[in-house]
Amino acid sequence: MLHCINQELKKNIHFPYFLLPIAGIILLCLTSVVESDETRQNITVFSLMLQGKAAAEGHIERSSLFLWRQGIGEWLLLFLPLMLTFEYIALLSEERQNRQIHFQLIRSGNFQYCISKIMGGALSGGIIFTIAYVLFGILMAIFFPHFSGFPQEEQNLYLELYFENNIYMYIFKQLIGIFLSGIASSVLGIGAAIFFRNKYILLCLPFLLNYIYRQTLSKLIINATSAGNSVEWIEAFYPEYIMRISINQYWIASFLMLLLEYIILSVLFYGRVKRGIFYE
Asked: Which residue in 188, 201, 8 sits closest to 91, CA to CA?
């Protein structure tokens, strides 16, 4: 089983093709809005990079660590399922068309084939997102002043407000959260690849499904807010919520939901392969 999962990982993050989603994720991180100026125009990470380090002098909110934290923006979250799974979708669609699946099923069996495909897709999504976010952080460190270069009083305040009083622990938790979020964001792409065949339609589906899903949750949050109800249970259904690593009931619910989603996908995938629907 582990050998099969490893083989699937190698397919999904095959050099140099996996560099394309990594580059796409970094570009989307650069579009993240940092703040608004006096004319209410949004200032993005990319626009600050063009201004150079002088634009960050005296602004701890423009330090490399803080901007790394700000990299998770709306455009990234919207396109992330597509970025993480388009190669997975293309490869699986290609296997279905050239009949390679028959040979793989004979060699590994239905159950092992399905689990390795699901696990390989999920793990590759987490790995790609983590690598991209680390490279984005390195980019921030190159272009912007370090957090440690600001006055100690400011550092202490922002450490308490945003970084849990420990930068290294924050970075470690953030990377674990990014990996889990990559796995969570890959669900839609993997699910689409299981149920649909045309790879050109499939490449659009993760984005479209994600857009509809996020719009639905946004409306639920607006309705809950208008009624004076708590919205944290709704927010826990966002894939990025799992980045807030914690032991509270909302994060645990988010993590359990992620496990349930992949269990359901595995069962449905196995059922389609077992009945021959998937590769007919």
From this structure: 8
- Helix 74-97 vs helix 19-30: crossing angle, to nearest 10: 160
Give yes or no for residue 184 having a pLDDT over 90.
Answer: yes
Neighbours of 61 (CB within 10 A): 14
Shortest CA distance to 182 belongs to which of 133, 139, 215, 216? 133
Cα separation values, 21 from 81, 182, 185, 220, 279, Å: 10, 12, 13, 31, 27
Residue with tokens 């109800």: 229
At 148-167, the pLDDT tens digits run 888 888 888 888 888 888 88
What is the number of residues in the chain? 280
Dihedral sign from CA coordinates of 70, 236, 192, 7? positive
Neighbouring CB atoms inside 10 A of 16's CB total 6
